[in-house]
């Protein structure tokens, strides 16, 4: 596998203005120095609780949020600046899917116009060709042809997310940033939408940056995962590293929070959750510096890194 996109020391700081002169008095360090690489054709998971900076990271990569520091290298080009992004058609290659399809799909437009929009923006094709392409895209996400002339409100939440997937892949992107794409859906529908996402990935050979607050959801999707807290990464690794050998207390907490359907192990799970919670209370200050900031990542293996004091040495 080879690198598609490399994020280096990415920072997004939002100014806080206050006082009579409306001066900048402080910043929200929404993203405060994160590094990661997404390989071609792979899925990278970004997981953390609400407010940890996941969406801001995703939006900065897509170009929807101003970057305060760091670099984004895409296919060897430094695309940190908007002018370079325009020059290489970056906006065609990188698409985004949002959690709330009701507000991200234009309610006044028919499905054909919604899905064809990226095609119209980036390619010059005949109406006939366009219709054919949209039909193919609908088929890939398991939607019938008669969806073409309907409006978003005529679909269920799961169907709308599939339309969102179809639109995102219309421009043949290389990377899709999927921000909580199934969080608003029932469990059974989640699985279905995730399956269509996987299918699209195989069909087009594209990469995903998959954002979620739930480690249970990303488990079957992601090759690599970063655990985010307060704008920083507390741990990164392969799926294997994160699920079978978690090191940071925050990762362990997220793992223990995954609901278990399995009744037989429910008591066991409850006990584990209590243990993790006790460990968290007893040792949490060892995992953050005196300002509560997450430490820099230290290498445990070629794939696995964790944020601990002095690289883990005491
Ligand atoms: N436009 C903005 N101006 C100021 N602060 C912002 C802005 N957007 C986000 N923030 C702050 O940045 C931090 C990170 O927000 P972000 O939306 O990236 O979190 P998130 O991990 O996606 O959370 P959620 O799981 O709730 O979607 C939060 O503290 C948020 O309040
Ligand atoms: Mg978010």
Automatic annotation (TrEMBL):
InterPro entries xref list: AAA+_ATPase (IPR003593), ABC_transp_ATP-bind (IPR050319), ABC_transporter-like_ATP-bd (IPR003439), ABC_transporter-like_CS (IPR017871), Oligopep_ABC_C (IPR013563), P-loop_NTPase (IPR027417)
Q: Which GO terms describe its biological process?
A: peptide transport; protein transport; transmembrane transport
Q: Which gene encodes it?
A: oppF4
Q: What class of enzyme is it?
A: hydrolase
Q: Which domain of life is it from?
A: Bacteria
**GO molecular function per UniProt:** ATP binding; ATP hydrolysis activity
Enzyme Commission code: 3.6.3.-
Domain ABC transporter spans what residues?
A: 16-255
Q: Does the keyword Transport apply?
A: yes
**UniProt-recorded name of the protein:** ABC transporter, ATP-binding protein
> What keywords are annotated for this sequence in UniProt?
ATP-binding, Hydrolase, Nucleotide-binding, Peptide transport, Protein transport, Transport
Family under the similarity heading: Belongs to the ABC transporter superfamily.
């Amino acid at each position: 596998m080879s690198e598609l996109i490399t994020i280096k020391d990415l920072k997004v700081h939002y100014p806080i203005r206050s006082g009579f002169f409306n001066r900048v008095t402080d910043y929200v360090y929404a993203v405060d120095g994160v590094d990661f690489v997404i390989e071609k054709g792979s899925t990278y998971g970004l997981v953390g609780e609400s407010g940890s900076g996941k969406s801001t990271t995703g939006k900065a990569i897509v170009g929807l949020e101003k970057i305060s520091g760091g670099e984004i290298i895409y296919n060897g080009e430094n695309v940190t600046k908007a002018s370079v992004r325009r020059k290489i058609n970056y906006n065609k290659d990188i698409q985004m899917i949002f959690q709330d399809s009701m507000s991200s799909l234009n309610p006044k437009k028919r499905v054909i116009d919604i899905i064809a929009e990226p095609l119209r923006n980036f390619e010059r094709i005949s109406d006939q060709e366009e219709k054919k392409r949209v039909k193919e895209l609908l088929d890939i996400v398991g939607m019938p042809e008669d969806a073409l002339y309907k409006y978003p409100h005529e679909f269920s939440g799961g169907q709308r997310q599939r339309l969102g997937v179809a639109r995102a892949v219309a421009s043949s992107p290389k990377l899709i940033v999927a921000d909580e794409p199934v969080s608003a859906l029932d469990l059974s529908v989640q699985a279905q939408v995730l399956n269509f996402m996987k299918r699209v990935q195989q069909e087009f050979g594209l990469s995903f940056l998959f954002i979620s607050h739930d480690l249970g959801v990303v488990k079957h999707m992601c090759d690599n995962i970063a655990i985010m807290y307060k704008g920083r990464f507390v741990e990164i690794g392969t799926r294997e590293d994160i699920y079978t050998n978690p090191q940071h207390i925050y990762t362990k907490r997220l793992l223990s929070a995954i609901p278990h359907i399995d009744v037989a192990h429910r008591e066991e799970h409850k006990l584990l959750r209590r243990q993790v919670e006790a460990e968290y209370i007893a040792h949490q200050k060892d995992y953050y510096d005196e300002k509560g900031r997450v430490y820099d990542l230290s290498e445990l293996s070629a794939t696995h890194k964790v944020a601990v004091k002095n690289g883990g040495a005491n």
